[in-house]
Design goal:
Layout lengths: L2 H20 L4 H10 L3 H36 L5
Helix pairs in contact: 1-3, 2-3
Length: 80
Amino acid sequence: MSLTQELAEKLAEDTFKVMDATGDDRFFMEVAKVIGASSTTLEEAYLTAVRVRMAERRARAFLVERLKQVQADGAGGDQA
């Protein structure tokens, strides 16, 4: 992993900690603006890391919801 990717991953990780603590789900855009003022390369890598994490969270929430639905359907008993 390149230095840029490593830094972007760590920044994204720390950003999500702040977003979780504050409830500000757009905070990452403020961080991206600060990064972009100095390095567009790091900004792009950071935004990619953020988007990947957001997609992973959405996918996990979807999986959990689907599992709950399946379990609820199964709890009623399958009768053929």
